[in-house]
Amino acid sequence: MIDKLKGTGVALITPFKQDYSIDYESLERIIEYVLYNRVDYLVVMGTTAETPTLNSDEKYELAAFIRETVKDRVPLVYGIGGNNTSEVLSSIQKADLHRYDAILSVTPYYNKPQQEGLYKHFMAIAEASPLPVILYNVPSRTGVNMTAETTVSLARANSKICAVKEASGNLEQIAKIIKDKPEDFLVISGDDNLTLPILAIGGSGVISVVANVLPASTSTMVKWGLEEVFNEARKIHLALLEFTQMLFANGSPAGIKAALASLGLCEEVLRLPLVPVSPELRLKIKQSLQTLLSTPKNTL
């Protein structure tokens, strides 16, 4: 599992048609695009996939479609999380996890559990899951931060808990996890613009939004970061910095869908309550992407 989840994972979007149905043709096109450009694994039904707007049937259909499209070419991670522990356990039992390699589960949102509640929630998931579990800490979305102490305690308590996707934005917290974690536990960046700093202190890679549209550049930066070729990795990190900020300026995945639409990979359609980016930001994203794609340092 350490080898499977090191490097660049892509948090796949869910493309929609103008009638808001799932656009499987565009999804296949995006999958082939990122695989051709050497990403290491795919993450299905995370936040970037607009999962809260998908019904149960759509989730099962998406998981099956992606599994059959990928055909074991790279590992697959299945996002299953929520703020009702018993419902999460039920979803794990119902999901067809054939050909999936791990589950990604977000900290419970809205009800703001204590650290003890987080610990018991994830221990229950680990005990119920037939697959290794990646913890996902993203306090900007959930309203609760899982501390370094809780993360490390979970990693030591159950070997099935194999990694954490850390999107707290707190490098001190992330450093504490890396310092105290078991040797075979992975710390994965959940923030594109913090990926290289996290790699520099011992992180294992990224689950990336930007890699939907710039998979080769992201993968190359992560590869060099893991190999400690920081002079070269830094060039890509700095080149992508402002573009990445643009992608999140009107929320995600609105920005990444605007970028993908500018490449003709999907339509810029989101399900409510999300809406597309502003016209001004759309133009900036398109111009910045064109500049990046014409730069020799990027290998797309």
Note the topology:
Elements: E1 7-11, H1 24-36, E2 41-44, H2 56-70, E3 76-79, H3 85-94, E4 102-106, H4 115-128, E5 133-137, H5 139-142, H6 148-157, E6 161-166, H7 171-180, E7 186-189, H8 195-200, E8 205-208, H9 215-226, H10 230-249, H11 254-262, H12 279-293
Parallel strand pairs: 1-2, 1-8, 2-3, 3-4, 4-5, 5-6, 6-7, 7-8
Would you give an account of this structure?
The chain is built from 12 helices and 8 strands. With 300 residues, it is an alpha/beta fold. It has a domain at 7-215: Aldolase class I (TIM Barrel, Alpha-Beta Barrel), CATH 3.20.20. Strands 1-2-3-4-5-6-7-8 form an 8-stranded parallel barrel, surrounded by 5 helices. Helix 11 crosses helix 12 (279-293). The protein starts with 6 loop residues before the first strand and ends in a 7-residue tail after the last helix.
Q: Could you provide a short overview of the structure?
A:
46% of the residues lie in helices and 12% in strands. It is built from 12 helices and 8 strands.
